[in-house]
């Protein structure tokens, strides 16, 4: 399929529940667990447990409705603010927070947490801890310089973006401009965590083939350093899932801060 025919996430969105079921569920035929569940959570646990990234407010700005990457974060921040591009994603997360019928079941993530943190009693309460930590879910508009316009939100101690830059950027200039908007959400001394898919062009959700901006590790590093960030960690996990649903070559995890 010609890339010009791919759906563009900020314009067309995608079915957020189908996205969860395809890439984050515990179904027997779900082959992305190591890449999208295990790898990011291992690194998030590692960087948070070092004790340098913590504070009052964490802002998460990611595509779709996945929240599993925030389980570990909920132990290091008093509040978590979630920004979403679409109303459907907000509804899906709210369904989980309010334990409504049909909410996505994240219980298959708990063995990962138990393995990482080693305390089964605490793991059993992770759902409630995260639900209490998420104090607000807001719609954001990536076309605005102030993503939450007209509302002004306090700057965050940490911003996590789980691949949203990949889905809302058409080229390198787009990526850099969007990156600059994201970092406006940070305190001057705040930390940034980026999770992305390297060397990919599309992701399939249901019947839709969704555009993904193609870049490599060198580009990701250059954007950060050119914008005045110091890279603290950079890990690249080569693709383990063989599938035509998503043509990524690897997952990248980066943490950085301004000097």
Structure, described:
Helix 3 packs parallel to helix 5. The protein has helices at residues 9-12, 16-23, 33-49, 87-97, 110-117, 120-124, 126-133, 164-168, 172-183, 217-226; strands at residues 55-61, 77-84, 134-139, 156-162, 186-198, 202-205, 208-211, 229-238, 250-258. With 259 residues, the protein is α/β, with parallel strands linked by helices. The mean pLDDT is 94. The chain has ten helices and nine strands. Strand 6 and strand 7 form a beta hairpin. A seven-stranded mixed sheet has the order 3-2-1-4-5-9-8.
SSE map:
Layout: H1 9-12, H2 16-23, H3 33-49, E1 55-61, E2 77-84, H4 87-97, H5 110-117, H6 120-124, H7 126-133, E3 134-139, E4 156-162, H8 164-168, H9 172-183, E5 186-198, E6 202-205, E7 208-211, H10 217-226, E8 229-238, E9 250-258
Parallel strand pairs: 1-2, 1-4, 2-3, 4-5
Antiparallel strand pairs: 5-9, 6-7, 8-9
Helix pairs in contact: 3-5
What are the salient characteristics of this protein?
two-stranded antiparallel ribbon, 259 residues, 26% strand, seven-stranded mixed β-sheet, globular, alpha/beta, 10 helices
Distance between the termini: 44 Å
What's the total number of strands? Answer: 9
Oligomer description: single chain
Globally, the shape reads: globular
Low-confidence stretches: none
**Structural class computed from helices and strand pairing:** alpha/beta
Spatial extent as radius of gyration: 17 Å
Strand content: 25-35%
Describe the main β-sheet briefly.
7 strands, mixed
Give the ordered list of helices and strands: HHHEEHHHHEEHHEEEHEE
Strands side by side in the biggest sheet: 3-2-1-4-5-9-8
Helix content: 25-40%
SS element count, helices: 10
Mean pLDDT: 94
